[in-house]
Amino acid sequence: MIKSELKRGMFLENPVFGMALGLCPALAITTTMKNALGMGLAAICVLAGSNVTVSLLCRWIPYKVRIPCYLIIIATYVSMALLVMKTAAPRLEHSLGIFVPLLAVNCIILARAESFASKNKAGPSLLDAVSTGLGFCLALVVCACIRELFGAGRLLGTPVVPHAAPMLALNYACGGFFSIALVLGIMNYVKLTRGKKP
Amino acid sequence: VKSLVAVTLLAMLGGLAVAVTNHVVSTQRLAPATGSAGVSVAPSTPRADSSLKHDGLRDSTSVKVMK
Question: ipTM of this predicted complex?
Answer without folding.
Answer: 0.76
